[in-house]
Amino acid sequence: DLELHLQRCQQLSVTVLTDHQDLSNTELKTITNSTAPQQYRIRAKLRTYKPQKLHQSVKLHCSKCNSLQEVPDRDDFDFILHGSAGTAPNPEVHNTSWYESVTWTTQERKQREIAIHFVKHDEMLQHPEDTLIMIEGGTLKEIWKLTKRFKCVIPVRSTEDDLELLDLSAPFLLKGNVKYYGCKQCSTPKPMKNLSSIAAEQQPSWEPTEIAQVLGIELLQYVFIMKFTLVDETGSLNAYLFDD
């Protein structure tokens, strides 16, 4: 557990933080006065680390514009879904050559219309575990149930002549228990009909990278980032950990 390990590091008076056993120890002052890149072995105290809570270390990174952003929380997604549920599904865009649509009205006090569009392959519905579906008007709870049954789920809304993605503050795709996000700055969302090119493939894989590409989405990657402040008797050094 990294968090416990970091707490232990703070308690120890001296901690070896790198593993270049063939190198002699270098003072931090020497490192800060050197030009990068270099390889060093150091002995130092861990003064502080950020963020303090490990889950806050996970961010979303865009490799195109190099931006970092917080992972939206459950409430953000829920709010966007409630907003889109206020618009009834448009029957004019149901049951096309590449997907089959099913609609129903919920029995709750504030009734909602829900539409699910099952993407077909060779004009046939596939097994659920191989199928991508698009859903209009669903709640977060309903969408999570669908991700357990179907390969991929895309929340959408109707326009006059097609289906489109929701606000990119929401995940554009859910696969298993993973939510996939697109960069608002670098993406140019395209209508859902562009997915028909993947549906026409001999064996559609429905990989997130391929889906993102045909929908004009610059896919954000989950990254792990931390900042450590290291000290010895000669000075201090900020060290950054950044990884997928």
Automatic annotation (TrEMBL):
PANTHER family xrefs: PROTECTION OF TELOMERES 1 (PTHR14513), PROTECTION OF TELOMERES PROTEIN 1 (PTHR14513:SF0)
Residue span, Protection of telomeres protein 1 C-terminal insertion domain: 75-218
Provenance organism: Nesospiza acunhae
Gene designation: Pot1
MF term (GO), any: G-rich strand telomeric DNA binding
GO cellular component terms listed in the entry, alphabetical order: nuclear telomere cap complex
UniProt-recorded name of the protein: POTE1 protein
Highest taxon in the source lineage: Eukaryota
GO biological process: regulation of telomere maintenance via telomerase; telomere capping
InterPro entries reported for this sequence: POT1 (IPR028389), POT1_C_insert (IPR048953)
